[in-house]
Amino acid sequence: MRFRYSKWTPESQTDEQRLQQLVSLFSYLVVQTSGDVQEALEWLKQLAEEYGLFDEEMTLDDLIDKLREMGIIEEVKTGIQLTNKGIQRIRQDALREIFTSLKKAPEGGHETPYTGTGVDRLSETKKFTFGDQPTNIDLTSTLSNAFRRDGIDDFTLREEDLEVYETEHQTSCATVLMLDISHSMILYGEDRITPAKQVGLALSELIMTRFPKDYLALVVFGDDAQLVSINELPFLTVGPYHTNTRAGLQLARNLLRRKGNANKQIFMITDGKPSAIFDSNGKLYKNSFGLDPRIVNKTLDEAVACRREKIPITTFMVARDPYLINFVEELTKANQGRAYYSSLTNLGEFVFVDYIRNRRKKFTSR
User: Fold this and answer.
1) Contact, 208 vs 227, CB < 8 A?
2) What is the residue range of 119's domain?
3) Residue 265 in 3-state DSSP?
4) Is residue 97 part of a domain?
5) Residue whose C-alpha is closest to residue 290's, from 263, 327, 253
6) Does the pTM exceed 0.85?
7) How far is it, in rounded angstroms, from Cα 335 to Cα 305?
8) Which phi and psi (to 5°) does residue 77 adopt?
9) pLDDT tens for residues 124-173?
10) Tally of structural domains, the chain
């Protein structure tokens, strides 16, 4: 997410538009500060001084009051913190930002190219079979069938006369989003964790609002892997960790194994090679130099295990080093999944385009 700042003039926006833009900017800064509201407000103050974001009509104190009125922040003993509504607003802002280029996508949820048990009627009809909803009976076609057989005077209705509208099949999906929180996500002064968190926030908002029956879990992985609540996502920070991709995949696979969804998938956002695994004694084996064959092979074994359980892995690499690309290609080949080599600016678009596309695909055993 990038903001371009310029001197504000009164005719630029309405008061409401200006307020919403400032709230969205605040949301972005809170993600960047890992949920530290006070620090985000300090950054906002610095930006305001440089770019003239506030004036007599709207001061920083006025914005803080508005954030309180909207239920986005609240006073606690330790200072100011986000409310649950504030966390939801951050997810909504992330979703809105990432979906800017996807606004013309068809509305609705989880459509597939297959007809079957569903909600939305299609124009096509078929013969009634046991289990079809009576509300989907096409009265015109049904009566026409009966009249053609016996005429109007001897009207009778038989089961074979009944025709029902086809409905668009809707499916569900269980998704685990894996997020790399190893040290490399902030290495060399480049912030890679903020856009990655934005993707997670937007994806969670998408599923909870448009696909409420879907399952979404968030797994973070560094030296080890951990299941994290979606509400914790804005507050995640990068640690002094290595990258135990294998542990992340193992936890994700175990979570998906418990779900009965027909479609299961893993989205993995990472910028580094696997550099750690647990050995048979439970001790962390790590090697940050190059691609360690021992670590790589164990990680690829886990990718194969996911493939056998029909769990495709979609990897989003935010690095372009040749040896890293070679590893991801090997992982993708082992899993028969997908890989994208994206920049930080279009990472979100790739994630969501691919997510929607997955909803249109029927997963079958190979």
Assistant:
1) no
2) 114-170
3) strand
4) no
5) 327
6) no
7) 8
8) -60, -35
9) 677 777 767 777 777 888 888 888 877 777 777 777 878 877 665 556 78
10) 3
